[in-house]
Amino acid sequence: MRIIENPFSLPVSREPNRLGEIYRAAARIIREKGFDGTSMNDIAEAVGLTKAGLYHHISGKRDLLFGIMTYGMDALEQEVIVPARALEDAEQRLRTIIHNHVRLITSRSNSDGNNAVTIVLDEVAGLTPPQRRKIDQRKRAYVDLIRDILRDLAADGKLNAVDITTAAFALLGMILWLSRWYNPEGRLSPEQVAEEVAKAALTGLLRH
Questions:
Q1: Which of 61, 144, 75 is nearest to 105 (CA)?
Q2: How far, CA to CA in Å, does 105 sit from each of 14, 41, 109, 125?
Q3: 92 and 149 in contact (C-beta within 8 Å)?
Q4: 66: Cβ–Cβ under 8 A, 6 or more apart, which residues?
Q5: How far is Cα 70 from Cα 7, in angstroms, rounded to an integer?
Q6: Which residues pair with 159 in a beta bridge?
Q7: pLDDT tens by residue, 99-142
Q8: Largest alpha-carbon pair distance within the chain?
Q9: Tell me, what's the pLDDT at 144?
Q10: How far apart (Å, rounded) are the C-alpha atoms in residues 54 and 22?
């Protein structure tokens, strides 16, 4: 048995396509059934493997969940956090976070990539304590980034009289809830949804 904690970190030579397929299928099933309601047989059948064949690629259900969450946090880091940190202006950093995080969710809402991101929010109870600490640490770093941006806006006189921690979590709640209601077949494109969410959030947060 070959034990792998996070297949998305593997070099190209070590079956990344097959491992990626397993992760995407598992993310979809866990999103639909919940972690406790998903069996290894469910995942094996979804990717055309026997249960023994599935264990050739992963070490167990909890490590599989941790790998999916790590993939989701890596996507958040690369597509949302890094671009925002590269900007000096606090208002532009906040706008970039809103637009990019919304697009991260809506542009993938018809694929398994979005499921991996939303599982980070819903299924942390399925992790081991060390795994949960690692994911929670990355989530806290993201919240801290948003709070720091709001503090910078307050220092510049651009922020309304709001509690910064409450505002940060309210903003994240608005963005993350998109995975529950956004319909990719609806009348608004991902870019239009990002504009509308930014408009609603910034109207409440920023002084005009």
A1: 75
A2: 28, 28, 6, 22
A3: no
A4: 5, 6, 127, 128, 131, 134, 135
A5: 10
A6: 206
A7: 999 998 887 654 555 566 777 777 888 899 999 999 999 999 99
A8: 61
A9: 97
A10: 8
Cβ proximity of 98 and 51 under 8 Å = no
Crossing angle of helices 61-76 and 90-106, rounded to 10°: 140
In angstroms, the CA 116 to CA 112 distance is 7
Q: Is 153 exposed, middle or buried (0-12, 13-18, 19+ CB in 10 A)?
A: buried
The residue behind tokens 């597509």 is 79
Task: Indicate the domain borders of the chain.
Answer: 7-205
pTM: 0.82
Q: What is the pLDDT of residues 75-85, one digit of tens each?
A: 899 999 999 99
**Angular region, 195: left φ>0, alpha ψ -120 to 50, beta rest:** alpha
Superfamily (CATH H level) for 7-205? Tetracycline Repressor, domain 2 (1.10.357.10)
